[in-house]
């Protein structure tokens, strides 16, 4: 289940743009495979055929096809060098 924190809702309202979640990157080695946390970005995805539009808490979010829906995931903000950006909290390495 995907939800938005209050600080993320405020930043999205300020930017007035849709949000999309990148495809989760997978790192493969000789004997293991790890899927790392995807990035959350403003705008529309480059490959819209690989994403499904959803409306969560009044915000249009493009989510990758087959995105896991079982863990509780939260989109929130984090400051990096004084600039706010959106991040996905609650992701577990798979």
Would you give an account of this structure?
- Helices cover 11% and strands 45% of the residues.
- Strands 5-2-7-6 form a four-stranded mixed sheet.
- The chain is globular.
- It has one helix spanning 6-15; strands at 2-4, 19-21, 26-28, 33-35, 40-42, 51-56, 59-64, 73-80, 83-89.
- The model has no long low-confidence stretch (mean pLDDT 89).
- It is mainly beta.
State mean pLDDT (0 to 100 scale).
89
* Through-space gap between termini: 17 Å
Shape: globular
Strand tally, please?
9
The proportion of residues forming helix, as a percent range, comes to: 10-25%
Strand order of the largest sheet: 5-2-7-6
- The string of secondary-structure elements, in order, is EHEEEEEEEE
Number of helices, counting only DSSP H or I runs of 4 residues or more: 1
Query: Which regions are unreliable across 5 or more consecutive residues at pLDDT < 50?
Result: none
Q: Report the sheet-strand fraction.
A: 35-45%
Largest sheet: 4 strands, mixed
Gyration radius, in Å? 14 Å
**Structural class of the secondary elements?**
mainly beta
């Amino acid at each position: 289940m995907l939800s938005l924190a209050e600080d993320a809702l405020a930043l999205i309202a300020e930017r007035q743009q849709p949000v999309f979640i990148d495809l989760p990157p997978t790192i493969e080695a000789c004997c293991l495979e790890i899927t790392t946390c995807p990035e959350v970005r403003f705008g529309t995805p480059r490959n819209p055929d690989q994403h499904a539009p959803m409306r969560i808490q009044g915000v249009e979010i493009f989510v990758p096809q087959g995105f896991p829906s079982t863990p509780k995931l939260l989109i929130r903000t984090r400051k990096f060098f004084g600039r706010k950006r959106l991040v996905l909290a609650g992701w577990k390495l798979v």
